[in-house]
Amino acid sequence: MASTGTLACAIVVLCATCSVARATLDSSNMLPSRSDRLERLAQRVGWKPIVRPSEAELNAIENKARRQPQPKIEHNMQNDGFCPPGYTGINCTSPICYNSSTIVYHDGTANMGDDVDWDVSDTCTDTYYFPLDSFVNDVYIEISANGLAAPNGRILNPTGQEVLPTSMLPSPLNTWIAKYENIVKQNGAGRYGLTLNISRAGTCIYSVQAKTTLSVDGGFIIDPRDDNVQTQQPQGNNGIERMPIHGVPSYLAFAVSLSNIQAQSVSFYTNAVFSLFYPVNTRYGCGAPYFVGAFTCSSVGFYHVKIHGVDPYGNAWQRVYYFDCLAGPSSKAVSSNGQSANLLPSSQCFNEGVLINAGTADAFCFCKPLFTGNMCQTPLTK
């Protein structure tokens, strides 16, 4: 039986760094490659059966995403005079960005494209369903098994008919990669099925990758008014360019590459297990107008999100992106505008601040918007 590290190394990864238009982005602290992420996941889950949502739960998530109203982005919206500075809208819940930035998009048509779906099967005999939208071209199915078992798969189109692959890509014995050219053009957009098969029972990981012009880019922010969502260059086909901090509530803010396409909901997964579902909210005066949260990393683990929406033709779309949870600050106070300082551990927080890691040397205050300081004692002024 091969080790989990062998499995991860067997996965074929085609990765290229996208060119960027903004020289100020930091190329350090790069996100691990797909094989590194899968190796970490394999180590954490130990190739044990994965608890995942049932088919009924997955259908409910998809239906809920379809029912979410299309958010309307209104630019130059004026404060109604009753909201605190930096917020507007009903109940003053819509942030107004104080540092609007230009989003640098990765190329969703590069390599084998963006991930449209990704999951772990503990038997490698399940059937999974995923949407293919009108902005998808060529699709690649990649299945990697634990050990030396040989996996394969069958694709079913929205009418239940099998779609044969255009070609097979060279791969090790425990990995199966099939290419489906122009699959949406020939079979239509809609809900496709993937049935997994394997030579002997075992765990496998699958991904559905698609060359697409519809991609998403953004990152995690502590202050929902902060538009600095990209602190590193877009890498390959991943769309998250700023990572969250362990133990610190943060928001995922992002933009969609096509201006006429809007996102509706985001699902969070921890170590391949579904954890949270958020409807998408909007911000104003921001390069990244959509946001969800707050989300708090519970461990330094393997995370991914599935971002859902509906295209102009009524077809559901989904994109999958991965992120790491960075280690938390040591003896630092962190405010909602991302400021921090080397101070003694906090013992209390003012102005509704939240004390994180209480009673330890790593204790610090997470401050509400409009406050900063090691105990959230200082109002922010704009």
From TrEMBL:
The keyword Iron does not apply. Residues 1-23 form the signal peptide. It holds the Pfam family GBD_IRG7_N. It comes from the Eukaryota. This is EGF-like domain-containing protein. Coiled coil: none annotated. Keywords: Signal. Residues 365-376 form the EGF-like domain. PROSITE patterns: EGF_1 (PS00022).
